[in-house]
Each structure stands twice: as structure tokens, then as C-alpha cells.
Amino acid sequence: MVRILGVDPGLRRTGWGVIESRGNALSFIDAGTIHAPLEGELAPRLAVLHKALSEILSSFRPDEAAVEQTFVNRDAVATLKLGQARGVVLLAPALMGIAVAEYAPNAVKKTVVGNGHAEKIQIRRMVQVLLPRARFDSDDSADALAVAITHAHSRGMRAFRMHAAG
Description:
Oligomer: single chain
Structural class: alpha/beta
Number of helices: 5
Helix content: 40-55%
């Protein structure tokens, strides 16, 4: 059994979701959204994100973490700020000795929905199918669960390939 934290990073809203993977079986543990202040200096906003994520890591004690990669935005300033929030999201588990994997948004959509260009509603529906007990409060937390599911499937494929080659 492995406990996985999935994270969909954002400066305003960061979705998170925790699942357990036992072979092919997935179980929902919890999910939510971190809401950073919309106003104010960047550093205190990032500190709120780090503190909340550190509390989630301490509470749920995941074995591994998976983070959605950032896509490049047309607005360079917004992209830079999102990258800084993503840095905090990568740093928090790393400081606790937790391995962090990264997945492109299209790879997450393809793994969970079967289509790399799926819409948010399709992701929400498939997360609910794959994790029937899942409760999420936003598209961000549904996306975070999709990232965790992607990591669980990726881990399974790596183990299968190693076993087959072994």
C-alpha cells in the first residue's frame, strides 16, 4: 500500500487530494483546496500556501507526492507567480523527505479520462467513477485527485515493466 498526495498548484487556489493505492485498487482519503489571500505581497501569500501544505503533509503522511506541471501562460508575470507557487508545492514535500513526481496536464487528462484535451467536468466525473467515495470542493481538488490517480497508475506500470523485464 502506498499513500499518495496529488497537488494542482496555483497561487490563488491549490487543490490537493490524498489517495491510497493497493495494486490496482484505489481508495479516497481526503481532498480540499488551499485558498491563499488574493491581495498583498507575494511572499506572505506563498508562506500561507507553504504552511497549509505542510499541515496537510503532517496530517496525512503520504509516502509520495505528485504535482501537475505548469503550462506556459500568455501573461509572463502571471506565469512567473504561478511558477513561484509551484516551487513552494515542490519544496514542501521535499523538505519532509517525500519523493515528488511531476505530470503534464495532458498526461493527467489522458490517464484519467482517456483524452488529453478533456474538459474539467469530464475530469470530475471520472474521478468520481474511479474514487466513488471522493468528495472534493473545487475543480482544483478534483484535478489534484486526478494527479494522484495518474501517479498511482504510473507507479503500477513501472512496477509491471520492472517485473516483466526482471
